[in-house]
Design a protein that fits this description.
The chain is of the alpha+beta class and about 525 residues long. Among the domains are: about 180 residues, Bactericidal permeability-increasing protein, domain 1, CATH 3.15.10; about 150 residues, Bactericidal permeability-increasing protein, domain 2 (Super Roll). Helix content is about 25%, strand content about 40%. It is built from eight helices and 24 strands. Strands 1, 3, 4, 5, 6, 7, 8 and 9 form an eight-stranded antiparallel β-sheet that branches. Strands 15, 16, 17, 18, 19, 20, 21 and 22 form an eight-stranded antiparallel β-sheet that branches. A hairpin with a 2-residue loop joins strand 17 and strand 18. The radius of gyration is 34 Å and the shape is elongated. InterPro entries: Bactericidal_perm-incr_a/b_dom (IPR017943), BPI/LBP (IPR030675), BPI/LBP/Plunc (IPR032942), Lipid-bd_serum_glycop_C (IPR001124), Lipid-bd_serum_glycop_N (IPR017942). Its main location: secreted.
Amino acid sequence: MVRSGVGSNMFSGSSMSPILAGFLVVCCVLGSSANRNVYRKVGPYKWKLNGWNKEPGFKARISQKGLDFLRDVGIQMLQKQIQQLTIPDIHGSADIGIGDVKYDVTNIRITTFSIPTASLTPDPAAGGLTLKTSGINLKVHGDWHYKIGGFIPISDSGNFDASASSISLAVTLRIGVDATGRPNISSKALDCSFNIGGLDVDLHGGASWLYNLFDDKIGDAIKDSLNGQICDTVIDEVNGSLEDELKDLQVIAPVGDVVEIDYSLVESPSFNGSINTAHKGEVYPIGNTTECPLPVPQIPPDSDISRMVFIWITEYLPNSAGYALQNVGFLQYNVTPENVPAEEKNYLNTSNFALDLLIPQINKMYPNMAMQINVNSTKAPVVKVASTGVQAVLVGDFIPYAILPNKTLAYLFTLSVTISAKVSVNFTGNNITWNISSFSTTMKAVHSAVGPFFTSALQLAVNTAIKVDLIPDLNKLGAVGAPLPQLDGFNFTKPVVSLGEGFLKIGTDLTYTP
């Protein structure tokens, strides 16, 4: 009969974190969370409230190809971290026929650890992922000491090498969504199995004829303890440390200091051959979650699994951004002689040749005076995505003023201008970016303090104002772009952007840098 005792946690600290972080966290949260250093916490699941739109403005997929990549990264992480694990001392006793021997196994350290075979696959029945490994090879080295009581006590010590082979581990992780739109994770006792097929112990030093009587007892004690406790450790880690980490993951990403993107999940992920997630995909003013009233386009079914990660972004996301920017008054610009290039300053003068020729009354009323043009958006910008391209429409007022000698402004007139712009969409780093490549304008007079005029006379001045001030500011915002959810160390590579009716699709592979 063998009696052994092992610490309640076979591996000290949070030893299973590398396994779960490498294999699982990335899979669960890549499409639903982001770097915790820049994301803020949100309140209860907003879309559940009456009147909130549950339709996803953003979807993501991790294909089996992506899961295989994450599995490989996880194995690399695990094989590095497992070498640093601290295994508690083992104390036990055994009856060897000539007496009761008490033994101690101390200073145990892992010298070899390799995982030749592993799989990470979606499990639709469980609503999560299943991790399976087999053929794990593990070698450890440590010290031993024994003592046999009796009329003449006997004790001895030395060191040992142990080799475990044919180790298998299978664990299922059930992944859902909590009340704040973050992923959650759990495992039950039946979700985990662990088995050591064989464990050979080779003791060195001391009287071999004696310790050979019970070395198999030590091996059995180590194997039984590991088999009995590893799954308890895994489940405790999943339901404790890993779930706590997911609770801290944030789903709100700031874009500059004006607006933020809501990436919260609107339903539990699905696990049919790939991991598929649906997200709110809406932009709000920072601190103000006023819902955008525009409809959310439907993303059609798509079975593409050729890349590791896919992201579908509906036009609702940029349209909610325009709605938010309009509400906070961000889309207002004052074009002055101080903020235009030197070669363009001539256009901001009442004696400008074209302006004097077409609206001569301005120069007569305010001769040779500098001008200021206030540009104010009067409607939220609207983005239309089609297979043929992306178009953005902005409607606003152009209100020029003459700058009097005392620096006060003299109102001239108000033009309502509609700008139709062609937008190119790109992928820079881990951000979706955009650039206004060309534009056209239409305009009509709303009010005038200088008498009637033909609006066509101002086409050049208006286009200049748009070109030198409005478009650069919008492109500056577009160059920064909108950050897509990611975890530290993972980056998108070789992205391909394609367009559909009401949405754009990004297919990309991943790289990992520790």
